[in-house]
Design a protein that fits this description.
The protein is an alpha+beta fold. It is about 40% helix and about 25% strand. The chain contains 12 helices and 12 strands. The strands form 3 sheets. A 5-stranded antiparallel β-sheet has the order 7-6-5-4-8. A 4-stranded antiparallel β-sheet has the order 10-11-9-12. Strands 1-3-2 form a 3-stranded antiparallel β-sheet. It starts with a helix and ends in a 5-residue tail after the last helix.
Length: about 300
């Protein structure tokens, strides 16, 4: 495939994905402004359809026309939403790897922190998952049962908050663990295999939790947070959790509702927003967060009454 053609495919996928739904005429307008269109040539309808078909055949990403909605185009999800998301992520990675000497100034202005896959061989973990092979994990931080070396049946991997995690079962204890690959010293594939449980569905399992803090002994509950300022704006574009609903809004603040396990990691996320976020319910979570705020205030020699949110 020619390099320029590949870039066009990635550009078209990205344009439709960000627009959610878009008419062909709008796509042509954006193409006229694209840096890829150096000669400012028009995007012919026939060329557009050829690109659509090639994208589906090569990458399995379908750009569909909704004739009932003013002939607007959108990216169709596969039965498993993660499949489409993963394909687009891989294409974006490939598009960055296509930078050449002609784009050297751009390369010098793109800064990346070290990523887990560079250190720990993410492809090896994927191969272990594909073959249902047990892996030996040596971690820097002891697990809840005070172990730093475990034999794990890897159930899945997850990219969360710019970090890679592997989630699986301890072969010896049957306990479930999530490992941040940045905290892992070594991962070694073994010749042993395991039987992947047919009833384990990663998306369903993680649905009730915030991030990788999977306290399986706790039940999810309805949580309401009042957010204001930039935190509210950020929550609208980057929801804290998939269950997020904006149930009330005015000029000063909004109330967001969630259904999840209010774990320590979720509480820390609330505290990271400072005074822009307040727990409204449940009362038990409100009191827990208030106690953490008071404890933090004491470290800075601030009175507890001053640090505790009103109403506690």
């Amino acid at each position: 495939m020619k390099r320029d053609l590949f870039r066009r495919y990635v550009w078209l996928i990205d344009t439709v994905r960000h627009a959610k739904k878009i008419q062909f005429e709008e796509i042509t307008e954006r193409w006229m402004e694209s840096p890829l269109n150096a000669d400012h040539s028009q995007l012919a309808l026939r060329t557009f359809h050829n690109h659509r078909h090639a994208i589906e055949n090569l990458f399995g990403i379908r750009i569909i026309c909704d004739r009932g909605d003013r002939n607007r185009y959108y990216i169709a999800e596969w039965p498993e939403p993660n499949a489409t998301r993963l394909k687009m992520w891989m294409l974006q990675k490939l598009s960055f790897s296509d930078l050449d000497e002609d784009t050297a100034p751009v390369k010098n202005r793109i800064l990346l922190d070290p990523t887990p896959e560079e250190k720990y061989g993410l492809p090896n973990i994927i191969e272990a998952i594909q073959g249902n092979r047990v892996i030996k994990i040596d971690c820097a931080i002891p697990t809840s049962d005070n172990k730093t070396s475990l034999l794990i049946a890897p159930y899945c991997i997850r990219f969360w908050r710019s970090q890679w995690f592997v989630f699986g079962k301890d072969i010896q204890t049957d306990m479930l663990h999530a490992f941040n690959l940045e905290r892992v010293i070594d991962i070694t594939p073994t010749d042993s295999t395991f039987e992947y449980p047919r009833d384990f569905k990663p998306e369903i399992f993680f649905r009730d939790f915030y991030g990788m803090d999977v306290s399986t002994g706790k039940m999810p509950e309805v949580v309401r947070l009042r957010m204001s300022g930039r935190t509210r704006d950020k929550a609208r574009t980057l929801p804290l959790h998939d269950s997020q609903k904006e149930v009330m809004t005015n000029s000063d603040y909004s109330v967001f509702e969630y259904f999840l396990v209010p774990s320590d990691e979720f509480q820390n996320a609330i505290l990271s927003h400072g005074t822009d976020t307040e727990v409204l319910s449940p009362l038990s979570l409100r009191e827990t967060v208030a106690k953490k705020v008071a404890a933090l205030a004491q470290r800075y020699n601030i009175s507890i009454d001053e640090a505790t949110p009103a109403g506690i």
